[in-house]
Amino acid sequence: FIVLGIESSCDDTGAAVVRSDGVILGEALASQSHIHEEWGGVVPGLAKTAHEEALDRVIQTALDEAGTTLHDVDAIGVTVGPGLEICLRVGAQRACELAQEYNKPFVGIHHLEAHIMMARLENKELEWPFLSLLVSGGHCQILSCHGVGNYSILGGTLDDSLGECFDKTARLLGLPVGGGGGPAVEALAKEGDPTAIPLTIPLLKRKDCDFSYAGLKTNVRRAAEQLAMERGVESALELSRQDKANIAASFQNIAIVHLEQRLDRAMTLVEKQDKAIRTLALVGGVAANQELRSRLNVLCEALGWTMVVPPPRLCTDQGAMAAWAAIERLKLGSSDDPSNQEVYARYPFSMA
Ligand code: ATP
Ligand code: FE
Question: What's the CA gap between 250 and 165, in Å, rounded?
């Protein structure tokens, strides 16, 4: 069977048609990066309007590319939370209308579960249970994943997410931030020395699996300001390309060291508790980062684990994640009522 998926939880309007065996038949994504670039971040009101303007065209493009129509899709899935409420509502309302008009089964999708599910789209052999590291724009969590809708959180961030920290670092260095600053920081870091700027590894004394990125964010800003002073320039924005690259590389390195340390602990704990879990799924927008992918792969190999990570373009938000998560639910005989679907800005896993 084939499913139309719709995603509008943040600043990307995505739609895709995915077949039940995981083949993406058609997809379209309207990025709002040019709109939010100007403001240095996502402006919810502008995002909502942009979703409204793009949605029908994006849906049509995905259907056309798949060579199908709304009459012929077998079900519709849409992200209903967590995310920006007014943005979620644009996609959810349209999806509910379409499901009722065309009389199709309907599934309301948990956005974070959909990020996790992309690991199972990427690797069909990935069986439950497995461990996930979810690193995205709004979240940073280690979860043990036991089945559709069945997750337990081993650790989470005490303050900021890693994606947010990448975005702030991009802004500090005057790099493009529309659509997320991560790719620009990653690209510049390739030219830098990761040991050039001394930064503190977060939560060294806390022996649990939680994260903290607020301190590192401040740490990076102070170090950049200090360097600007030494160089006799007004602000970090005026540093040379090499200095900026050194900051980017040093930040990225310590950010990853923190992930490695917390994951190492979580994996060791899990090994004692649950012999069945020996696979790590790396998911969420930050999982697109190549340095992160290769470093965590090394960590997994050293511990005798397997790592699964979706291709970069399927790590960040897009429509296929909503379609595939719907397929996973539909295969279990589970769906929702489109005449009575809420959206949730906050959406704990236990509610999904
Ligand atoms: P959430 O999924 O938590 O609701 P979101 O949907 O806004 O948040 P995602 O689309 O999953 O976030 O991820 C976007 C984040 O990923 C941004 O913070 C962006 O900077 C980051 N990101 C994207 N590509 C990279 C990269 N190559 N390196 C580092 N960070 C990246
Ligand atoms: Fe996301």
Answer: 13
Distance CA 195, CA 197 (A): 6
321 alpha carbon to ligand 1 midpoint, in Å? 14
Q: pLDDT tens digits for 201-215?
A: 999 999 999 999 999
**Whole-angstrom distance, CA of residue 43 vs CA of residue 11:** 9
Tens-place pLDDT, residues 63-94: 999 999 999 999 999 999 999 999 999 999 99
Supply the ipTM of this predicted assembly: 0.99
pLDDT tens, residue by residue, 13-66: 999 999 999 999 999 999 888 888 777 778 899 999 999 999 999 999 999 999
Kindly give the distance from the C-alpha atom of residue 70 to the centroid of ligand 2, in angstroms, as a whole number: 26
Torsion of CA 42, 44, 50, 52, to 10 degrees: 150
Q: Give the pTM.
A: 0.97
Taking the CA of 162 as reference, the closest ligand is 1
The 8-class DSSP code of residue 338 comes to G
Q: Which residues line ligand 1 (CB under 6 A)?
A: 10, 83, 111, 115, 136-139, 163, 166-167, 180-183, 186, 284-286, 288-289, 316-317
Query: How far is the centre of ligand 1, averaged over its atoms, from the C-alpha of 142 (Å)?
Result: 16
